[in-house]
Amino acid sequence: MTEVLDINVRKIKSSRLQDLNIDELPFGKYFTDHMLVADYADGEWQHVEIIPYQPLTIEPSNSALHYGQSIFEGIKAYRDHHGDAYIFRPYENFKRFNLSAQRMCMPEVPEEIFIEGMRKLIEIDKEWIPQKKDHALYIRPFMFATDGALGVKPSDTYKFLIILCPVGPFHAAPMKIAVEEKYTRAAPGGVGFSKNAGNYGGSMYPAMKAQKEGYDQVLWTDAFEHKWLQEVGMMNIGFIINGTFVTPMLEDTILKGVTRDSVLTILKDMGISTEERKINIDEIVEDYKKGQINEVFGMGTAAVISPVKELKYKDVVMKFDPSTFTIAAKVKQTLYEIRTGISADTHDWMLKV
Ligand code: COI
Fold first, then answer.
1. Among protein residues, the one whose CA lies closest to atom 6 of ligand 1
2. Which residues are CB-contacts of 13 (< 8 A; sequence separation ≥ 6)?
3. Are 167 and 140 in contact (CB under 8 A)?
4. All domains of the chain, ordered by start, with CATH?
5. Which atom of ligand 1 approaches the CA of 302 most closely?
6. What is the pLDDT of residues 239-296, one digit of tens each?
7. pLDDT digits (tens, 9 = 90+) for 64-79
8. Contact 177, 309 (CB under 8 A)
9. Pocket test for ligand 1, best of 199, 254, 301, 335 (most atoms within 8 A of CB)
10. If you compute the radius of gyration of the chain from its CA atoms, what whole number of angstroms results?
11. pTM for this structure?
């Protein structure tokens, strides 16, 4: 049972919603009227409140800025045709958030703050959920250390926040991806499975180099041979090979994607065989040359299902035609129908706000 939490609410005087242009929604740029803030001190969470979206004040010696104790999640909310708001699988993100917290020596956030706080916040800013195809309200829960001290040790104090932004499609156009041969995102025993800020900071330089060569993202490979596939910059990766869905198995170098898990479930419902296993890039090149790769796509909360039109490894450029990706399209449509209440939510994925 979830405890009933006393959340102080201070509402904005006048909503900014009328200034929002739904046809112009770059990812993560516009935020709703309110945010949730909670403080951790003296070994407990306190002062949980929903207040107008606003800047924070922190010490220049803030330990998250110096040593990186900072984690986040990405979740989406939708409205059905009655206008009711639903959050997609927030308990999965809640569990992953606390796994990240554990790995980064941060306190766990209780369900009554993470889930119930999120519900209450969305209820207040519900009108911001775009009711347009491929649009959603992106929910960003995050936590960071707030001690003002330069000692290299876990902070004693933290802030947990939830902010919300209406978003459109993340990668509207099919992606061009370069297989990474030099840089490493995660190694065994490291923090690759956690959603900590540093994983994203460390990925920017290789991504920027790939972008200069005309690619959207890199496909990360293992730290030793740069052969075994891990994940794409901001999403998991999957292939349809000879009609079977194949995706890298979960290891501590890979983020346990909620969309990845949803795709696996939907494919099983569709009767399509699925394999979670190690995938070597040489196998992909060989299968490509034999014409056996039918589809390639990324899976993520922000990205949903993002088709790949080009995959480059050394001097091999593998080209795909996303207009023929019938399985990816079917999965995307199924996800859309479940999220917007068109189809029955048979897996109990949607949490009513
Ligand atoms: C998400 O899909 O929620 C992500 O974490 C990607 C984000 C870093 C843009």
1. 234
2. none
3. no
4. 8-169 (3.30.470.10), 175-339 (3.20.10.10)
5. 2
6. 999 999 999 999 999 999 999 999 999 999 999 999 999 999 999 999 999 999 999 9
7. 999 999 999 999 999 9
8. no
9. 301
10. 21
11. 0.94
